[in-house]
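Example for reference:
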Amino acid sequence: MGDKPISFKDKDGNFVSAADVWNAEKLEELFNKLNPNRKLRLERERLAKEESKEN
């Protein structure tokens, strides 16, 4: 398991590492919840990048 800090319990009460609980999808959801403008900014940046590729 390595040097992962154990700080959460799963639904069965077993300890699990924070790295296993906070995967990329859950972190993305958390960041968007804490900062609603982040999702809008990322979408604007993605559209600008696509537009620059077309030109």
The first strand starts at residue 6 and ends at 9. Helices lie at 18-21, 24-34, 36-54. Residues 6 and 17 are 4 Å apart (CA to CA).
